[in-house]
Amino acid sequence: MPVIFYGVGAPRHDAPPAAVPAKIVRGFLIAYGTNPVGDFWPLAGGRMTVGRLGANESVDVPLQDPTVSSHHAALLIDAASGAIAVEDTGSTNGTFVNDEALGPHGRRDLRDGDRLRFGGLTAIVKIIGRV
Question: Which pTM does this prediction carry?
Answer without folding.
Answer: 0.79
